[in-house]
Amino acid sequence: MINSAVKLKVDRRDGKLVMAQIYVAFIALLIGGLAGLLQVLVRSGRFELPAGIGYYQILTVHGVVLGLVLTTFFIMGFMQACVSITAGTFTNKQRTIAWIGFWLMTIGTVMAAVMILLNEASVLYTFYAPLQAHFLFYLGLTLVVVGSWLGSAAIIMKYAQWRRANPGTPSPLLTFMALVNVLMWIVATLGVAATVLIQLLPWSLGLVETVNVGVSRTLFWYFGHPLVYFWLLPAYMAWYVIIPKIIGGKIFSDSLARMSFILFLLFSIPVGFHHQLLEPGIDAAWKFLQVVLTFLVVIPSLMTAFSLFATFETFGRSKGAKGLFGWFKMLPWGDARFAVPFIGMLSFIPAGAGGLINASNQMNQVVHNTIWVTGHFHLTLATAVVLTFFGITFWLVPHLTGRVLTKAINKLALIQGVLWAIGMTFMSGAMHAAGLLGAPRRSAFSEYGGAPQAAEWIPYQVAQAVGGSILFLAIILMLYIFVNLAFFAPKGEEEFPIGEMSTHAEPAPMVFENWKIWMGITVLLILFAYTIPFIDLIQNAPPGSKGYNNLW
Ligand code: HAS
Ligand code: CU
Asked: Does the beta carbon of 352 sit less than 6 angstroms from any atom of ligand 1?
């Protein structure tokens, strides 16, 4: 079935391309992790930043470097590896395009990073106007996006080539999933490209005096929400396809996996308003519509949870497990390639529940702009997704460098995962709790010119610092593991685990690959959810604000 066309090894030339991106991702982990440590220490109120470094500056480093750089580089590399091994080695032309993409992304990253370090771009990672950065920061991030389009183009070209060569056969599942993610990414990044090119760049160059802030935030969130699923879907690729193989089980259903990815394509984009529920300028009816669509996009995650339980249970029972939860004991707890992503899955249960709370219009009033939200995305992105990426690293890096994951490193990897779980329980738990008490996010406290601290938040801020310090230790351990797997582990062959279909599953219907239908519905839903609100935001921009409407 899906495995018949699978080669056993990623081509060496493709492997270099993938590794280049993974190197950048881990450098980002080091820098971003350090910034994170400084942040929790400052917030504990017991530490001052040296050398005139600003709180918002390190916050921007942390958000941009981990939220945008680590993720985009790792994801591009991982997806390219998946496509290369399941749909075939990239042609020279495809690989060259991907390399140009890599270099554009890298140059862009350096430009943005330099401007942040010079304190010319302390605009947080959502770069909300009217906060303004140096134009080189915006230009740098534009290059990152354009570079990622080229990396995506290589994936699309490979898919098209495979499609032509195999008419009437469903594409390999991992390739299909990577394709959906890049299609979603391209449609989503049009929003951020629009605000950067048409609004923020001309404004930061002084060509226009002001920008329509409502429009710029709306365009950002048109991109910002699918951005979080662009992070999530590669983790889902591993959960659906890689994990079953690692535990020695089977993929529960190929069709269900494809269907959930298609639902992400359709419903990820027209939901950005759930980040703007408290913003003026958008009619409540449109906010309501997007809240409803947000609850629709929860369905493919529930399908994923169902499918994972089914995989685990079927596997356990095949090993003779009895009772409701007997299968749980049968899972390979000593294998870091499974156990570390599993911690991620586990954290995604409360993380997802928190998301539902955020999305519920009334409850959003309680949590919005509090540090609860920071707690939410440290469970989703910084635990569920990131621990899955680490789990992938444990086999992908040695696979590509011709080395093996030794028993000793596997053990360290398990310790790393457990440390992460402990650190994050403290940090994210305290963030959720302090958020409910009203502690603001993204706010330096009084000594940095921010809000005064309420006494009742302080114990939670200390717990955050404790958790954050444990997380920093885990990051150091992870970097050690990465360097070992990339340069020092013994030579050998490490498997690229790709799950096989359960024999009970039906083959996937070809309608899943009718991109005219899926892209058509995607565009229609976007137009439906956004056209009138955009017209409103542009036509009803506050009158009399000098130059406010210079731009839209
Ligand atoms: Fe979110 C804010 C709503 C998912 C990331 N989110 C953020 C921000 C980030 C972020 C970065 O509606 C802050 C942005 C900023 O800086 O302002 N989020 C949701 C909803 C979901 C959701 C409804 N978010 C994510 C994911 C992220 C992410 C995924 C990153 C990867 N989020 C919001 C809202 C806000 C928000 C509002 C704005 C808040 C505000 O006011 O500013 C859903 O997609 C979640 C669905 C998930 C589930 C869980 C399914 C569980 C699974 C695991 C199964 C486990 C197994 C193993 C099988 C329903 C799949 C267990 C085995 C055992 C034996 C137990
Ligand atoms: Cu969102």
From this structure: yes
